[in-house]
Every structure is written in structure tokens, then in C-alpha cells.
């Protein structure tokens, strides 16, 4: 008799993980079960990010986890992907927080910053004592970041920055903002500190997605920034786009966790729900839907694992990230919607996870490259023609 398969891991992906990778997944998974799942529904309802969990996330080594030194964990990228998967099994807002801190703020300082910038900021960020945000998107420059209006002009040894950024995760609680601005020498990155005169933030309210996450607008009115706060090792779009590639890599893993959470919930529900004198999961249509969800999750798991292998081998291409982000987020949002429907009337309340994940994934499928953008990236690779 063959051994029973794991309902959330039909192809036994765990058996392909190293001992360290498995340990990372299990430890973060336990923390999500113990600390996130009991409180995240209420946090979503109340439009609150659970700030008290930041020190615990830091103690677990979740910030800058792939960076060597500076108090960071120095894990491989497959481990980072598994971290994103387990965090998003809790909530997309939680994964977004860790993703912004790690991939969009600590990574550019590590990759493009001076030695002084690395020593000053990275150890504090690894401890969660300094929170970062990433300022690229503008109200009229989302999918086309090259058209940004925010600009920086040299003034002696300083830069004067004017403009604004929109849809910024962590913006109103961040101690520093990694802000990308037009200069006479192309787009450059600056570390803008919370208390610099002329720098202001504003919370974005009335969100129906990522409610357990802080989203803000950033405003720069003649903000004077010393040249020591400019990221010296990159110019042009290569800087912000490389940050986005790192973040999109994590996003390719994260929604697998959201889909697993939805599937587990509906597996339990259809076993317990009795309709016409038998459990709901006795129906063919229910089993077909469950089987299709499992197939799509398994496909996404294998895609993410291969993505991690390529990333760890330093062979990953942006087109591969685009395909994985497109496939895996689409997979998760479709499963969340299907699970919400299968829960019946109960599915519209946040006592169940499906509608929360469904709403969150509406943001995930939009940010860091919309689904259409990633489709066009793959299309350009296949045809050699730019359709943007």
C-alpha cells in the first residue's frame, strides 16, 4: 500500500529541499500558525498592520535573509521563497512588509550603496529597528517608471528633491525611503530619512485589499538630501528594476501559500458540510474543483522551485520571473475566488480566509508589474518585438 500523499504537497516538493531549507519552512510555518493566523482576520477587519510582530520577524531572520553579513541570515534564495510562501499563507500584507524591507530596501543598499551606507543602515534594518519603504511608483507612472516626474537637482554637495510617490507599502511608518528620481545623469536612488524637512507621508484609506498593511503616498517639497545619501553604484532604470526582479521573485512564491490556505479551508469545510444527507465532498463537481486546485498549486510549486534553483545558480532571467509571477498569482486568485464560492454564504465573511486572500491578491496581481505587463515581457521574449 502506497503512503498517503500530503494534500497540499502532492508531488512531495519537501523531499527536494535541503535540510536547511526544510528547517526554514517549518520554523516560519509554525510561527505563522501560532502568531499570525489567530489575529490576522481581525487585523484585516480593523485595517491595522500588527506592528508588535516586527521584532519577532527580525528575531526569525526574515529581514534581508539572503544578505551575507550585517546581522543578516545569509540564506539561499530558495529559503527566501519558502519564507514568502509561509508568510503569505498567513496574509499577503505580512509578506509584502518583509518583501519591501528585504528586496526593495535592504537589497539596493547592499547592491548599490557605499560601505558607509551599508554599515549605517543594514544592521538596524535586519533587527527591525529601522523600517524602509520603496518610492518608485507615481500616480501617472506605474507600468512606465521611466516617465516619473519626481526629480533631484544638484545643489552644492546636496540634492534638492521634488515630487511624489503613490501606493507605497510601509510609507507612513518607514524611517527611511529608497526614492528613485530623475537627474541630469539619469534616474538615481536616494536614501531619504523620515525627519528630513519637506518630506511628508499620507496614509491611503478605504482600501478593500491589503487592509492588514500600511499603504501611503510620499511627498517631497524641496527636500535637501546630502550626496552621502545617494546610492553611488547605479544609474538608470537598472537600479529600481533589479530591485523589482528580486521582489517579484518572492511574489512568485508567496501566493502559493495563500492558495494552500484556501484549499485547506475548503477541504475541511466540504468534509464537514452535510447537504442532502451526505458530505459536500462526495459530489463529483466538488471533487473536480478540488482536484483542479491541487493541479494548479502543484504546477506553481514546481515552477517556484525551479525559479529558486536558477536564482541560486545565478542563472535567472527576468522573463522567467515574469512567467512565474504571472502564472502563480493568477493561480492563487482563481483558487481563492473558487473557494469563496464553495463556502457559500459563509464565504463572504473574514471568519474564513478565502475572501481575505481573494481581496489581497487583487493587489498582488497588480503591483510589481501587472499581469498584462508580465504577459508582454514573455511575448517580447518569444517574438523579439516590443509591444509595450
From TrEMBL:
Q: Which InterPro entries match?
A: Acyl-CoA_DH_CS, Acyl-CoA_Oxase/DH_mid-dom, Acyl-CoA_Oxase/DH_mid-dom_sf, AcylCo_DH-like_C, AcylCo_DH/oxidase_C, AcylCoA_DH/ox_N, AcylCoA_DH/ox_N_sf, AcylCoA_DH/oxidase_NM_dom_sf
Please give the superkingdom of this protein's source.
Answer: Bacteria
Residue limits of the Acyl-CoA dehydrogenase/oxidase N-terminal domain?
18-129
Entry's Gene Ontology BP terms: fatty acid beta-oxidation using acyl-CoA dehydrogenase; fatty-acyl-CoA biosynthetic process
Catalysed reactions listed for this entry: glutaryl-CoA + oxidized [electron-transfer flavoprotein] + 2 H(+) = (2E)-butenoyl-CoA + reduced [electron-transfer flavoprotein] + CO2
Q: Which residues form the Acyl-CoA dehydrogenase/oxidase C-terminal domain?
A: 236-382
**E.C. number(s) listed in UniProt:** 1.3.8.6
Pathway per its UniProt entry is: Amino-acid metabolism; lysine degradation; Amino-acid metabolism; tryptophan metabolism
Enumerate the UniProt keywords alphabetically: FAD, Flavoprotein, Oxidoreductase, Transit peptide
- Record has Transcription as a keyword: no
Keyword Oxidoreductase part of the UniProt annotation = yes
Cofactors that this protein relies on: FAD
Q: Give all residue intervals belonging to the Acyl-CoA oxidase/dehydrogenase middle domain.
A: 133-223
Q: What class of enzyme is it?
A: oxidoreductase
Report the family membership: Belongs to the acyl-CoA dehydrogenase family.
Which named protein is this?
A: glutaryl-CoA dehydrogenase (ETF)
Could you tell me which species this protein originates from? Marinicella litoralis
